[in-house]
Amino acid sequence: VQLQASGGGLVQAGGSLNLSCTVSGLSLDYVAIAWFRQTPGNEREGVLCLSSTGLIIKYDDPTKGRFTISRDRAKNTVYLQMNSLKADDTAVYYCAVSRYAVGSSEAGHYTKWGQGTLVTVSS
User: Fold this and answer.
1) What is the DSSP letter of 108?
2) Which of 1, 5, 10, 51 is the most buried (most CB within 10 A)?
């Protein structure tokens, strides 16, 4: 199982980015996938999770109403659309898959991780 995350970069505050995570070796029809983010010196924190049935669970209050998660089943790819970005959103963003159909905000729940993609928001 491999996860390939991409789409990070430098953006001005108020701008948007769309991260993608393509999964190979495992169908997202059967497992949950989530986006986490991590800043230096801090633990990874869950942002959004998509269950195998398409249920969206939001873990991070500061991103509510600004970030959305979606899935392209044909491409086995999940996206994180980030709008109205703030400097506090600067982090390395990771996608991760669970072995279960439902996710969790706990990083330990997930068994496979993408390599991370850096998002830098300038104020």
Assistant:
1) G
2) 5
Amino acid of residue 106: E
Name the phi and psi angles at 46, rounded to 5: -70, 140
Burial of 24 (0-12, 13-18, 19+ CB in 10 A): exposed
For residue 60, pLDDT over 80 is answered with no
- Give the model confidence (pLDDT) of 110-119 as tens digits: 999 999 999 9
Which amino acid belongs to residue 78? V
Dihedral over alpha carbons 4, 74, 44, 62 (to 10 degrees): 130
Q: What is the mean pLDDT of the chain?
A: 95
